Amino acid sequence: MKLQACLVFTLVAATLVAATSVRQAAAADPAAPTDHPNTEAVDTTRTILPMPSTTILQMPSYETTCGEQKHLRCEEHFRASVDSAKICCRFEGECGDTGMPRCGHATCCTDHSGDSTDITKSKELTCTCAGAVVNGKCYKTVQEAMDVDGSENTVYIGGTKTIVEPIYFTNRVITVAGVTCDGTRAKIVADFDSKTEAAFEASRWDQKMIFSDLDITGVEGKSSAGIHGRGNEEDAGHQMVDLTLLNVHIYDMWCQRTGCGIFLGGAKKLYTDDDCIFRNLTLQSSDHNLYAGGAAVGVVYLPRGNNITLRGTFKDNSASYEGGSAHSSGGAVYLDFVAGEVLLNGKFENNQANQGGAVNIQGNFGNITFDGLYKSNIAIDGGFGARAGAVRVQSLRSTSFTRMNGDFIGNIAQGRGGVLATNSHQSNSQLIFDGHYHANVAAERGGVWNFWSASTVYRGDTVLYKTAQFTNNAAHGDADASSIYYVSGNPSAKPALPKNPSAKFAEIEWNGTTTAVYGNTTGVVLYTEQDVNNDNKWFKLTESIRYAGHLPSITFDEYVYGKKKEIATQRYVEKVEVLEERYATKFDAALSKAEIDEARVLQRFTNATIRINERFDNADKDWQVKLENKTAKINDRFDSAAAKANLRFEEASAKANDRYTTKLSTANERYASYDPTAENNKYSEANDKIAQRYQDAIGRAELERNNATERAEQRFAADMEKINATYIANELEVLTRYNEKSQDATDKFLEEKKVALARADPTEALSSAETKKAKNIQAADDEKTDDLERFNNVRQEKSEEAEAKKKTALAAVEERYRAAEEAASVKRDEDLVAVEVDLQSRQSVAEDKRDAAIREATQRQTDDLAAAESKREESLAAAESKRDFDFEGLDTYDDDMAAAKQKFEDDLAIAEQKKIDDLAVVDDKNQTRIDAVQAVKDFQQAQANLIRDNIMAGKPSMEGVDKIVLGAERTDDDDSESEN
Fold it and tell me: Which of 103, 251, 559, 697 pairs with 109 at a CA distance of 20 to 30 A?
């Protein structure tokens, strides 16, 4: 029952790990034993291996179509569809010089349904807004926009926005969208210096955020980051964040904590799309207590049911604690506790750290898939060993699944594991290699994968699946004998566990056949499908393959038999773990007793040294008191003399200042009698009178001009009336004469016609009469025309004369007006100058008198203070001379203290030797206790082996087990716990 309770507690604890970091001690290099729970001890005698090199001979083809990218979310994020036939490149820059676009949302999403009117207006406003836009309104700063209340606000940012402090926000759901203005992407520049803060700080306990089409960068020499949630490397906190990044570029930043790009204490969901870029992010610190890397992305806690998907480009990122812990884990990505689903399917290139050049994962309790391209990443040895050129997964926990399914090309470890390094594989953990591995190299062992541990035994299931490709990988430490993998270790920290037997595998041994690497407490077993000769091996081989999605048929009998072996092994492991815990307690108890004994010895030594120091201090204090008394008397005399000198100086200074104040007050009072306000009022009144006189003169001149103009117009009108009347009279007279002559011609014609008609032949006479009539009428008409023309000419001449006379009169009027206006202006200007001169004259006289009085008072004050200061300095100099003379007469006490000092050193030497002798006795007693505990533990280990063998043989599990000894051991254990 006790064993079962321990197992239940262990399983529950493993599933309930939440906000607390699960990071374990970094596995020690065999040449560098650990002396700290989280770091490897520095071995100053250890030689750092040279950085190996590699040559990439070939790259896979990444040319594809948008339709092949099943993960694209065009409809979800962009209300668009996928252009399935469009040709694109899976990873940026990996399709030669073709200029082929990357297969991301920006390239593959087409037939966009368009923005609403409100969104379009907000985007247009963004390009001219100094801050950011929310709901069609421009706010002065991005912080003000982020502070706007709203359940699902969208904050639009355009242009380059420089922020001088982090932007904190508490919106439950928020979208931050960059808007391209004049062809330029939106950019946030973090121009502040903070060890822990980022440009965007999400501070609500539960937040959902979307960032899109935005650049985030920093300022050279200043520590900052991109987007942070709450928590830190040691404590995830209670916040859970849902964060999506679409086409976000975070680059050129330096930070001192994990996550220069993104940091989340707790992740509900994290998604970065193919268009995201994390470039040139540097995590650098000299902190001795930290080792979490992840310059691009850092996440502490991913609980079961939650997920992380990282796509995009992660390039030229690095993590370093040089000068500090020197253990940097994950150049680009750092994940701590992973119980959910993780997919890393981006391009990781030229990233570097001490452990995991690109990615580091502390504990996998869930499912992790490494897909994508991992190229030219480096694990650098800074003196503590290096491992995992590309990916490090420290602990693969029971029932976890880790799949290596990407392209791993040209990665380098200056230590172990050119691609992958692991430190703990619990039973039923699954690791499968199903990718492309080319030109990876380890300076020591494990060209592709290395397992090494100083505290655990390899117990997991690892499968090299038949579709995996291994070419040109190298392990320089054993002449490529482990160019694919190396499994070894020495868990000396836990004596109950056996040493890991070495197991290695080279490319020359790989023939494309599915191969399993199965670990248990007694060894590492390697077998392939052709090697299987019993149901148990077949079950173990197919178990990992099932996890990878390959499902060969399996019979019920095979399943039952496999489970039986699994239960037997698990019972054995559980028993060993319980014994290990129980005897670890006994070891701790022995060490505790040794610590108590050692503490007593040290306390006695401390007490002795205290007494010795007290004796010496008392002798020293007696002499110090005498010296201090004499010194105090001398200083008192000096202080008294100095006080008197200062008092005299202060009295003289006060008198000088009083005289200055009195004279200054008198000068100001005299100047105050001059009233600037009254003078300015007089000046204003004079100006007003001058302006009024000028207006009056101008008014009279304008009145005269108007009257003269009216008179000239009246005379002109009278002349024109007279001229027109004369012309009308003459015209009437001409017309009258014309009518009379016409009538006379007509009358004569009628008389001659009558005479002609009386003749026998009247034709000639009638013709002659008519001709005469026409001549007479024409003569009258010509005369009329001549007269009218003559009279009209006369009228025209008279009219022009009248017009000229009027113009002359008006010109004379205008001339008189201009002369009057000019005279008024001249008079006004002369009067204004006279008033201004008069005002300035009175003001200048008053100011001159005041300034002269102030100068005189200031000079007198300066002279008086200088004289007082001179007298004080003379007095102080005399007092200091007297004090120095007195000090020279004091006797020193160095010779008197020599004997006391020698006695002090002799006593300390005796106490030190006594401490050394007592500690030797304590060490002997402690070794005796440890030997006794070890003997009991060895016996119980043998009993555990017997229980396992009984189960495997089908016997009762406790048959032959010494129950009396077990019972006695449990009683002894209880006594130890009570004593502790």
Answer: 251
- State the Cα–Cα distance between residues 169 and 147, nearest whole angstrom: 6
Query: 3-state DSSP call for residue 367?
Result: strand
The whole-angstrom separation of Cα 837 and Cα 820 is 26
Rounded CA-CA distance 505/532 in Å is 18
How far CA 380 is from CA of 136, 376, 487, 833, in Å, comes to: 51, 12, 21, 88
- Say whether pLDDT at 712 is over 90: no
Q: How many CB atoms lie within 10 A of CB 230?
A: 21
93-125 pLDDT, tens per residue? 899 888 899 999 989 998 666 677 778 888 889
- Give the pLDDT confidence score for residue 781 in this predicted structure: 85
With a CB cutoff of 8 Å and minimum separation 6, the contacts of 540 are 461, 516, 518, 562
CA distances from 486 to 87, 101, 262, 400 (A): 41, 40, 34, 21
Q: Return the H-helix or E-strand segment holding 108.
A: helix 105-108
Confidence of residue 470 (pLDDT cuts 50, 70, 90): very high
Which of 439-443, 727-731, 926-930 tops mean pLDDT?
A: 439-443
The 3-state DSSP class for residue 599 equals helix
Closest by Cα among 245, 236, 305 to 264: 236
CA distance 543 to 537: 10
Q: For residue range 953-969, what is the model confidence (pLDDT) as tens digits?
A: 656 666 666 643 433 33
Torsion of CA 464, 468, 470, 471, to 10 degrees: 170
Letter for the amino acid at 10? T
- Cα 288 to the chain's mean position, in Å? 24
Tokens for 478, please give them. Answer: 């054993």
Span 68-77, average pLDDT = 88
**Does residue 564 come out as left (phi exceeding 0), alpha (psi in the -120 to 50 range) or beta?**
alpha
What are the extents of the domains in the chain? 65-114, 354-554, 573-637+893-979, 676-856
CB under 8 Å to 125, separation ≥6 — which residues? 133, 136, 138, 156
**Residue 822, CA distances (Å) to 353, 415, 692, 808 in order:** 91, 103, 16, 21
* Crossing angle of the two packed helices 556-673 and 2-16, in degrees rounded to 10: 50
Kindly report each contact of residues 926-929 with a partner whose C-beta sits within 8 Å and lies 24 or more positions away, as own/partner: 926/590, 926/591, 926/593, 926/594, 926/597, 929/590, 929/593, 929/594
Q: If DSSP states are collapsed to H, E and C, what string results for 410-438? A: CCEECCECCCEEEEEECCCCEEEECCEEE
Output the CA–CA distances (angstroms, integers) from residue 313 to 61, 318, 929, in the order listed. 17, 14, 58
- Residue 359 to residue 346: CA distance in whole angstroms: 12
Question: Which pLDDT score, from 0 to 100, does residue 854 have?
Answer: 81
Whole-number average pLDDT of the chain: 80
SS3 692: helix
**DSSP label at residue 42:** P
Of the CA atoms within 13 Å of residue 480, those in its CB half-sphere come to 12
313-318-321 Cα angle (round to 5): 155
133-168 burial string, b = 16+ CB within 10 Å, else e?
Answer: bbeeebbeebbebbbbeeeebbbbbbbebebeebbe
